[in-house]
Specification:
Blueprint: H1 3-25, E1 32-34, E2 40-42, H2 43-59, E3 64-67, E4 80-88, H3 90-94, E5 101-108, E6 111-119, E7 124-128, E8 134-137, E9 149-151, E10 162-167, H4 173-179, E11 184-190, H5 194-200, E12 206-209, H6 215-227, E13 231-234, E14 253-256
Parallel strand pairs: 3-4, 10-11
Antiparallel strand pairs: 1-2, 4-5, 5-6, 6-7, 7-8, 8-9, 12-14, 13-14
Amino acid sequence: MEYQRLIPIIRRLAIEAGEKIMEIYDSPDFEVRSKSDDSPVTAADEAADALISAGLAEAFPEVLIVTEEQAATHSARADSFLIVDPLDGTKEFVQRRGDFTVNIAYVENGVPTRGVVYAPAKERLFYTLADGTAVEETGPFDAQAAGSTVQIRVAEPGASGLMVVASKSHRDAATDAYIGQYTVKDMKSAGSSLKFCLVATGEADLYPRLGRTMEWDTAAGDAVLRGAGGRMVRFEDHAPFTYGKEGYANPFFIAHAPGVDLKGA
């Protein structure tokens, strides 16, 4: 993959998809349907997916595209592939909470090497550059031309305790019990892949997820986190977290700054 070409394309598609999503988000009403797994889907998910999928297929016809909204892609396999969640955090979207993102990532041999996370309602845009480092761009955002960026880096956890971020829609007792093993300075809730980005920028130190996720939920945020010096590991044994798994389902995981002394499961 030619990263110098990839990054402007996935950045542009994320912003254009965000514009489609916000048109529907700002409308007086929109329909919410249930998919076969009972998760919600809206016209915004479908419009963003159509735009991103068409753009990626045109730019990279030889690369496998795996996307949440197209079940036929979930059985396809390749060593390297593009993976998309056109609207991560549909529950936050439906409840008009703003914590939803557009996620596009490129995975090579099990590792998400490049990615973009765009939170249009929050006006925050994170992505990896061609060299793999992670940045946050300051708005307003122009799909055709990148604006000013600031390199982001994970923080060194303070002596007074950790900043912990957890899911807004999927918090449970098991997660609370695990977090309880740490000295915690403060906690915050966030939806979608924004949690990875908060660790990447140093706004949080630890994000544990003891619940079901899919690779399209995590790949882009994971790429940004890795580009900022952070780490993503399996919850049960702290082994490296990999992509391209059968069915694209994830195990439980911990995203963290390297300075965090991880506790056992």
